[in-house]
Amino acid sequence: MPIQNTSHGAAIRVQGLARVYRMGDSEIRAVNDVTFSIEAGEFVALLGTSGSGKSSLLNLIAGLDTPTAGSVTVAERDLARMSREELARYRRSTVGMVFQAFNLVPAMTVLENVELPMRFAEVPREHRMERARAALERVGLGHRVDHRPSELSGGEQQRASLARALVNHPSLLLADEPTGNLDSRTGTEIMDLIHTINKEGTTVLMVTHERPLAERYASRFIFLRDGKLVEDPAEVPA
Amino acid sequence: MKAGDLVELAGRNLRESVLRNSLTTVGISVGVASLVAMLSLGIGLQHLASSRLAKSGLFDSIYVTSGRRMQGPNGRRENRKTPPPSLDEGARQKMARFAGVAEVYPDVRFPAELKVPSVDAANSPPRASVEASTNASSGHSGEGQPSREYQLISGLPMSARQLESFDNMKGEYFSSPDAAEIILQSEEAKTLTDKPDDLLGKEIVLRYASRHLLNDDGSSSAASEYGAASELSVYAVSPKEATLKVVGLVESKADAGIRGAGSAGAYVPINLALKLEPMQMTQVRLAGDRDPLANNYSALIVRATRSSQVEGIENQIKQLGYNTFSLLDATRNLRRFFAILDLFLGIFGSLALAVASLGIINTLVMSILERRREIGIMKAIGASDGDVQKLFFAEAGAMGIFGGAVGVLLGWIIGRVINFGTRVYMQRQQQFTPDDVWLVPLWLVLGAIGFSVIVSLLAGLYPAARAARLDPVQALRYD
After folding, report:
1. Which domain range does residue B78 map to?
2. Distance in Å, alpha carbon of A16 to nearest chain B alpha carbon
3. Which has more confidence, B175 or B51?
4. Which CATH number belongs to the domain containing residue B75 in this structure?
5. Comparing C-alpha atoms, which of B112, B200, B102, B243 is closest to residue B160?
6. Do B473 and A107 touch (CB under 8 A)?
7. Residues B414 and B376 in one domain
8. What confidence tens digit (pLDDT) does each residue in B134-145 have?
9. ipTM at complex level
């Protein structure tokens, strides 16, 4: 079953965005006056070295963190103006997230992990199993639904993670180094999957430091260094 | 998140680290058990004490006498404008209708002589009974003759069966308020025969002085002797006999104070006593007076359904113009004492629960540290602060419910064991009747479980708030 309701990917507008962390007396400007926009349905790669602020930027767009200054508008709604409750609702309905470390709940089976976001979204119980199985079939994991994450390979875990991210039909998929813990062949499989999801309409913003991967799949790149946007891709080492 | 999911996830989390959560729950159980044990001991003792007091009959009765007769036989008349109301059947009916009054019955006590027919033929002069008694109650030993067994006979209502004195009686209580039956004190019965138990079911003769109204012509010699001076009515006092069946023997002297039993040596049903028209103790005193008690009762005993109602009823009766007497409501002080005792027992019992609640806090805080990442994941995929908070609350509440239920069961078992122990001990002591000192009422069961849940939820407040505040970015940062 194809992932539904993703034909209208969300547009993202980032305006003068800044996030400052305080570490004792010193300030760390993880994100420093960043402005860019992404059109609905795009596949954008966010490139930068470790510590360049790309994960911080992704967390701000995911609504997991609140900006020190500036605004993030996703699907015409300003995240900075949302309450914590509204942000939670935004995370469970508009955004799907995939992490480098997969972040599946170890005590739950794959199926239960995929079901979990639907519990928070208060999807009726009778629809959950069906939708969770469909999402797992979609990522090619229909045969391992009753296994715990520890019994799966890295690639399988990331597939499960993808199924979980997509089960509530988000219009925006945020991926933080999705292939970072995978070998190149498995990584390619996952990227192919994300590419398909994008083709079906979901806007994808992927953080990575692997330039070749980004060049192969993304339609556009955004480069970040020391929390700032960098115009010239050449300045960002591969 | 819906309640069903909350319970499901909480249950899953509790099972995940089953040993730690079980130990915490056992801690709560021990706390609840100690609370239940302490409080049920207090409640049991209170119940025991107040039921004993109620059975004594001392604190639920009002002794009512006519307003005009409280001075001595030669005392001064009170200067009242209106004559005090008479204590007659109408007054009795009126008092019986007051709220909280269980029954009103006359106080009938009269001296009489008891004889076992086979020993003493009906009309022969009194002979010495087998045991020439030095018994205090045989005060009227007459003109130097060997003792006649005079007893104070008391009329009792059927409700007096509940009095403590009749707890261990042999035989039966009166079959009806009119039955020609008598219950003897064992000690007094010994003055009649060697084997008092043999008297049960036998007939016994009661000789007493009867005081009855004469015809208006008043020609009788008895009338001129006792009542000639009266303008109202003329009474005669003459010896009479009644044959009664011994139905019961009571062990101890009924110490039932104003509930009529007094220090009587034998009891007859109240209506029978009235029918006999005996010369009562109070009437002996009034016999020479100008105004004998006409058709009045010498005294009425008003029994309240609850001792707490005695004061109100007593005031109502006083307003009618009668004299009243009652013992202070001792149960009120008793209740105050037990309220304080229960409070202290409750505080000591709660200490263990307080310690257990620290266990909950500790367990949940540990759980937050352990599940830091999991909380971060849940937030990243859409859990709100409230969802996370409720999840931890549900876990604390579940531990409270389980701990409370197991604790009540544990406390109940402890109670049964101690009850068993005290029963065995009391039976060994012989003179005590075994009693339950332990009582676990339903409200205590529900209250203890409820209290356990509340304490658990309070203990969960801090961990739940802390988990809800957890920053998902921080929680997910480290692999």
Report:
1. 60-107+297-326
2. 21
3. B175
4. 3.30.70
5. B102
6. no
7. yes
8. 333 443 433 334
9. 0.90
